């Protein structure tokens, strides 16, 4: 018996869903990101308002003072939907695991100068509580903000911060033992150097406006913390003192912030471009919380920088201001 195989081209009846076609115009092929994001927000057929907050609908844009004509104006330049996000993070996790294996297999943690090791344990390990706070805040933004264009990347951000907390814990266990986690928790709860940052994180937990919370956490705190701790103190200062192994162990945080700030800047730019009222509101949120964050980070930075702290902190704030100005919010 002879079997002939042939290729048959089937012309699709349409290239995307109707609600996507209405947004991108015509019957055009849509990207996976567009299909997994646009108009995914539930808007109708709610049975009743939430009994715990009957002033609002379950999903209600009025929960924030920020006003948008279309909440899908927010777009993620990384084009992250679930599949793309998990593949990107899996690749980064492979790199992080290779770095941990490299440091552990060659005993590089034991070769760290004692002063660098102590600085890392005092400065870095308590930051896992900050990362956990960011996990909570981004989950809250995802729950109470409106539109999948902004809520979807926030839940990815929440899971990233959970991973960062776990990487910090692993660094602590690699450089010390289980006691370093208890000591870091005690410092977070009792040490004067951490009380300003702890108050900032705890105050953020009670912010009701989800977009203000977005600015407080992702724009301001992360915008000052990551350049200060990971890019300046660890990658520059401690590496020059023999702490290159620590920079390898925290490479995920450095790479993650460089990637994530593109999305944060795009969000700020979109919100500010919507109206003069939004721009003024964003400037007020950023300015007020920036000053609090800078003051809270100052004693933390002093653990590693000593007399250079004020100079470095001023430089980090200046760079942050320039970044926000470029995003459309002059400070």
From TrEMBL:
Sorted UniProt keywords: Monooxygenase, Oxidoreductase
Matches recorded under Gene3D superfamilies: Ribonucleotide Reductase, subunit A
Record keyword Oxidoreductase present: yes
GO molecular function annotation: monooxygenase activity
Listed name of the protein: Aromatic/alkene monooxygenase hydroxylase subunit beta
